[in-house]
Amino acid sequence: MKVGVSMNLPDLKKAKERTSKPVEYQCQELAFDSSFQGKKYFLRTYGCQMNEHDSEEIKGILDFYGMIPCEELEKADVILLNTCAIRENAHDKVFGYLGRIKHLKKERPEVIVGIGGCMSQEEGIVEEIQTRHPYVNFVFGTHNIHDLGRLLSNAKKTSQEIEVYSMEGNVYENVSYKRDSKITAWVNIIYGCDKFCTYCIVPYTRGKERSRKMSEILKEVKMLKEEGYQEVTLLGQNVNAYGHDFQDGTLFSHLLEKVAQTGIPRIRFVTSHPWNFTDEMIDVIAKYPNIMPYIHLPIQSGSNRILKLMGRRYTKESYIELFQKMKNRIPNVAITTDIIVGFPGETEEDFQETLDVVETCQFDGAYTFIFSPREGTPAARMRDDTPKEEKEKRLQRLNERVNFYSKQKNEALLHREAPVLILGQSEKDPKKVYGYTDTMKLVNVDAPQSVIGQIVPVLITDAKSFSLDGRMVK
Ligand code: SF4
Fold it and tell me: What SS3 class is residue 201?
């Protein structure tokens, strides 16, 4: 008979705590359980690159147990959902999916179901799973992915186990990822976030800022280069904060320079907070041709009043100054951004200021969203009078301008040559391949499949709002 177990429930107050307790650096250690050998697993990932990369860790663990990936939910022995807490629709999608899983569990109660990721760090969500989805075998958080093996083994003998730690977090090394690509790779450089933007749940779900040791990062990048990887993306909620927690003068610019010196062909990084993007970083990006001239620099709003309410720690003016500095000093740089529409209290005048910044900066692209409150964050308690229809209209007006400039930037590349890293067969046309320019523009290329994995010169022959067409130059 299955028994209940003691539970570690999420606690947002505790998750907000920041102490001077030193970060523990540990090695991932997995205990083998042969009973999972040959079992099929279905893993679905929601959200950002951090989550995608966490899923590569999950797959690495399941691989260690000899498990086999499976595309069909109905045929899986183990179902895992790696969830996201940033957007409301991600929440709806997860609970929609659980409906399908519920039916499946009725027919095959032996199937093991686990829910992980940022959403499981939220108190209300875990309550919802406990009361409305008791068939879920276990819930884990972002701090204990390495413990997945134990949770899987326990699932055979317990009813429901909730193991979500609301803690500042440690750093695990020697993680054996099962990477999705053999050409591009993500490399974590810093975990967590201490910025506490008022709308964001990440500092609660992912803990305090804690950098990986530079030697470990460089070891990983060198290994990837030896394995033939063409591109690494350095990952963090705010990569600019890299090294601050060491308190020995180490900065992201130092790490970036060392990574460039490994000679890996392409380097990217996400995400950068405009608040601590230093001149030294700009200099290093401009100096090394293998650091791609592409920066994602979220502005979120063009109104200083709203930026203050968001707790973003910069002004419209300082953002534009930084933007111009990048444009002046990094040849050919492309800059994209994130914008939230309809933050609580945003007036038409505030929104107009956001449109003004879009006109000034003419971004290469922008991810635009309507504000959605995250329970437990300060913004969720702010008064929000703007009707939903008005927010939708603002989003539409914003997207028109954003798309106009995206297309214009793409058209500027017409009849020019660009270096493209070819990643695979084009989905739109199987006779073509696709890849990305140094400035992160998607190109469908007339070229043989044999160039997949190579950086090739491409002549741009057509430009649309969100992609380019081209042919390989012999
Ligand atoms: S910088 Fe702000 S928006 Fe980005 S993860 Fe941290 S709190 Fe969230």
Answer: coil
Q: Which domains does the chain have, with CATH numbers?
A: 12-163 (3.40.50.12160), 171-411 (3.80.30.20), 417-472 (2.40.50.140)
Would you state the pLDDT for residue 4? 59
Tokens of 169: 């977090």
In this structure, what DSSP letter does residue 262 have?
Answer: T
Residue 46's alpha-carbon distances to 137, 340, 406, in angstroms, are 20, 20, 26
Determine which residue's CA is closest to atom 8 belonging to ligand 1.
200
Pocket of ligand 1 (CB under 6 A): 193, 195-197, 200, 202-203, 237-238, 273
Alpha carbons 14 and 10: distance in angstroms, whole number: 8
Quote the pTM value: 0.95
- Ligand 1 centroid – CA 9 distance (Å): 23
- DSSP assignment letter at 413: T
Q: Cα-flanking dihedrals φ and ψ of residue 80, to 5°?
A: -125, 135
The β-bridge relationship of strands 190-191 and 210-211 is: antiparallel
Distance CA 200, CA 122 (A): 12
Rounded to the nearest 5 degrees, what angle is found at the Cα of 358, between the Cα atoms of 352 and 362? 160
Characterize 14-50 residue by residue with b for buried, 16 or more Cβ atoms within 10 angstroms of its Cβ, and e for exposed.
Answer: ebeeeeeeebeeeebeeeeeeebeebbbbbebbbbeb
Place of tokens 């969203």: 369
Express each pLDDT in 33-52 by its tens digit. Answer: 889 999 999 999 999 999 99
pLDDT average, residue stretch 66-71: 96
- Are 379 and 435 contacting, i.e. CB atoms less than 8 angstroms apart? no
- What is the H or E stretch that residue 188 is in? strand 184-188
Under DSSP, is residue 359 helix (H, G, I), strand (E, B) or coil?
helix
Q: How many alpha carbons lie under 13 Å from residue 11 in its C-beta half-sphere?
A: 11
Query: Ligand 1 centroid to 178 CA: how many Å?
Result: 27
Report, in angstroms and rounded to the nearest whole number, the Rg of the chain calculated over CA atoms.
Answer: 23
